[in-house]
Amino acid sequence: MQLKSALSNFAAFTLLILSFTMIACASPAPAPPALAVARSGEPNNVNGLVARGDVSDQCLDLVVKLKADVDIFIGDLDKCYGTPSCDPKPIIVNIVARIRACIDLIVKLQGTILIKLDVIIKVVVDIIIALATACGKWVIKLGLDVYLTIFVDIDVVLCALINALVVLEGSIKLKLKLLLVVQVQLLITACFNGLIKILALHVNKLAIESYDKYPRAQVVRDLSAHPDHGLIFGSGCRSRDLHSHSATRATPGFSLLSHVNMGAPDLRLGDFIPGLLVPPEANVHLTIGIHFLLAALYTLTITSRPRTYAVIRILLGIPAGYIFYHYAFHPYDAPRRSVETGLAVVGLYGIMRVIDTCLVDLLVGVHTPPRWVVDGKVLPLPTTFFGRIGYSVDYLLSLRGTSIFKNTTWDWIVPSAKRRMPPPTTPRITFICSAMWSLTKQYIVYDTLDALNKSRVWDTNLPYPITNGGLSVPEQLVFAFSVCAGTALSISVPATLVAIISVASGAPVEAWPPMFDAPFSAISLADFWTRRWHSLFRRVFDRLSLGILHGLEKVHAPLPLRLRKTLRAVLIFGLSATLHLLLMYRLPISDTHYHPAFFDHSIMMFFLSQPAALLVERMIVEPLAGGNVWVTRAWAWGWLLCSGRWWADVWVRRGLWDPKEKVVGYSVVRGLLYGNWTP
């Protein structure tokens, strides 16, 4: 079938996107058990069968009351966790007894669940997740063997609860599996092996066999001793640390690649790429938001009926923006502060993309969708269904104007990124070798800076630990340099690693230019900010500032060109300041860390002083330098180091240099100097 009209194309695309979220509901499921039961005392009397009624309301009441009671017990369990010498066993006994009482009442129900199945399943899932979260963190405090002897009954009784519900509705097990599949890491953290098994979640076959044959504690020891018996999904517990009782707090969402060592080499990739430590439930929210944004981007290619599709974009942008906001600021149980800020970065970027896609053109008054440029020629917007899908996905993934397609860029590509693009004819192996050498150098510098940053104990209760924390001026400048270089490396190291993997997997080499263009060789402050620094937010900042300026001009009057250019620079740094204010404000409040008001003085000073410094450079420094690049270079780096002290204050007091914050999985510097290879 060929789709002719633009509206039918959009409808087909929307249905395609919706299908991804409907797979769970549309999956084949076992038919419910027969809607009839034998009369009491007549199990074999077929003629004595009576119709089974719907017991949804009774079952829902039971599980809701169970959840309320379990929440109370979990509160007691959390209090016990924070109390020295508190024994959790009596609380666990009460939880198990309460669940068993609920099971007994469910078993007595005569009927089937017809109406409120999804609501019941959601309540049961909430109970399981709450218990797994509350119980999992006790692994480290008690040790694995003691933990299993106390908490094993919860796993068993949850299995019994599910089996009791299955009698009333056979499809419950499958639906529970679909909802809990993203929580496998959490269930493994709590060692709910029986629950994982009966739901047929992703567990290695040999692990299942071991579960059947050996005691639970022995199974876990076997899994840690034999590489072939490892669980497919990661756990929050590192087995080698469980037995030494020296691991950090077990946290849902820890990645297999970064924290589980079950006989295979532990690459600790989560320390190099914090994104691997994002809680799984956050990824679900992000995926939903991306689908809404993708549908909005699809409408950009439809030029007929622009007003209609502008309204559609706004309607799609509202849920997308809300979901990205939720992703940015929901209190997920993230293991580190760097992961918390990473969630905020992605969520806020998503919100800015939504505003760019749905609102900026309305403020500007011109609908100008971006275009592909192939071999130097600007292409028209795609008109086929799959062409529009490719356009939408490529535009969604492009942060700097590069493309996932060979010999292709976007017409808005950032000039600095275009200069850094490797030639399309670059051999793949040459690119990979060059990137690996660059990654090695970045790693050594990053490791050295991290060792320097953590060489002292910082007083994070001070509002200004760098500029007013007893450091000499040279020391302040050293740590200002460290935070500037460390910020760059925190972006460049993961990006380089992903570029290597992508190109090795077949991506075009020109799609992966370096994130930075030798920032230390900048000849001026303007050169540093416009050409050398990363351009990840350049597109959205440019578009948002353009929309704001057009809005001001509609209210006021057209601005003179020079004033307009100056205001746009101020707006861009203002947007950057707002972004970083939100990033830091997202971090949790702690008694051990200074938590300023939203308008953090240090952040405001650093970002809002940059346009003033650029103006000074243009009006005073450059005329005095007379074309001598060393003068402008000295000015640029002198200013960046002096102002960087304000940003370093923020970095230290918000805990981003705390010992538990990891930036490298293995430390060559600390290994050679102190024998500490795993900081």
Tell me briefly what this model is.
With 679 residues, this protein is mainly α. The protein is 63% helix and 2% strand.
The number of distinct structural domains comes to: 3
User: Whole-number average pLDDT?
Assistant: 79
Percentage of residues assigned to helices: 55-70%
Weakly predicted, low-confidence segments: 15-52, 202-264
End-to-end separation: 59 Å
Major sheet characteristics: 3 strands, antiparallel
Strand order in the sheet with the most strands: 6-5-7
3D architecture notes:
There is one protein chain. The chain is globular and about 90 Å long. The strands form three sheets. The chain has a three-stranded antiparallel beta sheet with strand order 6-5-7, with no helix packed on it. It is mostly helical and 679 residues long. The chain folds into three domains: 154 residues; 119 residues, no CATH class; 247 residues, no CATH class. α2 runs antiparallel to α3, α23 packs across α24 and α25 packs antiparallel against α26. The chain has 27 helices and seven strands. About 15% of the residues have low confidence.
